[in-house]
Design goal:
Structural class: alpha+beta
Mean pLDDT: 87
Largest sheet: 3 strands, antiparallel
Strand content: 25-35%
Number of strands: 6
Shape: elongated
Order of helices and strands: EEEEEHEH
Helix content: 25-40%
Low-confidence stretches: none
Radius of gyration: 13 Å
Oligomer: single chain
């Protein structure tokens, strides 16, 4: 996620929408590359993140539990 410490504005890594410091982005991780991105709640950002191989912590924990 992009973050400007001077203005305290963060932006979504998918749609690049600027968010207020009080808004929260969901951290999505790619289990293969260990990269992370910040996703806003906008429609389409979650789907795009999934297409790129990124999943939330809850989704990754659920996948790990299903494989066990």
């Amino acid at each position: 996620m992009a973050y400007d410490p001077k203005t305290r504005v963060q932006s979504c890594d998918v749609c690049h929408r600027h968010m207020n410091p009080t808004d929260s982005l969901t951290t999505m991780k790619n289990p293969d590359t260990r990269d992370a991105m910040g996703i806003c709640p906008a429609h389409g950002c979650w789907e795009t993140a999934h297409e790129r191989g990124y999943f939330s912590r809850t989704e990754l924990e659920r996948q790990a539990g299903e494989q066990a």
